[in-house]
Amino acid sequence: MAFVLEVPVNLLGRRQNLVSFSRSRGPSTYTSFSRKQRPLFSISATLNTPVQSLDEKHLARANDVALPIMVNSCMGKMGQAVIEAGVSAGLHIVPASFGIETDAGKTVQVGGKDIQVHGPSDRETALASLVEEYPNMIVVDFTVPNAVNDNAELYCKSGVPFVMGTTGGDRDLLYKTVEDAKLYAVISPQMGKQVVAFLAAMEIMAKQFPGAFSGYKLQVMESHQATKLDASGTAKAVISCFQKLGVSFDLDEIQLIRDPRQQIEMVGVPEKHLNGHAFHMYNLTSPDGTVSFEFQHNVCGRSIYAEGAIDAALFLAKKIQSKADKKIYDMIDVLREGSMR
């Protein structure tokens, strides 16, 4: 039997923040979910100023040298992971990065590369100089939410194509800024390609089978590093799909696990990944309690997001070289094009 799945174009909406996946075998260790002898169907996924256009000279140069990428911020764990992924992919890491004012002037070594940090006060001058030196440069942004809009405005003003992996900020303003500038960009709060594919499948199910789980009770548990105080964007996106499938659930019902001891003993997070993980579980139970569905997706570390960001940068470079439409792309576009290593 053959079938075709159509991925909705608006999957990664402006207000969605998505996160991650992994695999787990054997009985769940989540003690908050009751276990009765009943049919169980389990699904899990595992994964350890005007705009300046690029001219023909710039495109020719792009073909002759390794793609240069500027990673903001090299002081953060995600930025460092992206730099390491870029080095592994053979890209040229531009020796400069945006950071906070107190780090300005520092030189840090990441992935064997010396990178100078520029603070907010000199970032515009620094970027202009870098664009002159690396005309086909692409920026990958993993900074902080309150820098999203200012950074995007500067990238647009300088005509620099960019990948925005940072979540938060004013997303409507972000999209409007880039759309008005007619700039090449990939904007996605979720860079994990396999995660995006899984969520696309969830959206398809919700769209094609609305109300399929009407009457079912949903329990959601998610665990992240202690520094993450809010509920996961991925959890919110998955819950939205279940709501379309007929499940009644309020976001304040999400059980957040942030205590390291609980994460190790109850959730099963490896101790070495306490400072960087995303473990989620969704349990659906039928009204009479005889049927249960369990969805679980866990990620340890940051490599899945870093590799996805590099693929997004390579995708943008291809779009620029082919003179494709200057517009905002997302990770669904990257997946569709097969721009994955």
**Integer average pLDDT:** 84
Q: Characterize the main sheet.
A: 6 strands, parallel
Radius of gyration computed on alpha carbons: 21 Å
Q: List how many beta strands DSSP finds.
A: 14
Helix and strand content put the structural class at alpha/beta
Order of helices and strands: EHEHEEEEHEHEHEHEHEHEEHEH
Helix amount, in percent? 25-40%
Biggest sheet, strands in spatial order? 3-2-7-8-9-14
C-alpha termini separation: 30 Å
Shape field: globular
Q: Which stretches of 5+ consecutive residues score pLDDT under 50?
A: 1-64
Number of helices in the DSSP assignment:
10
Beta-strand proportion:
15-25%
How do you describe this structure in short?
The chain is α/β, with parallel strands linked by helices. The protein has helices at residues 56-64, 77-88, 123-133, 148-158, 171-181, 193-208, 233-244, 260-267, 303-321, 331-336, and strands at 40-46, 68-72, 92-93, 96-98, 107-110, 113-118, 138-141, 162-164, 185-187, 217-224, 255-257, 277-285, 292-300, 328-329. Helix 6 packs parallel to helix 7 (233-244).
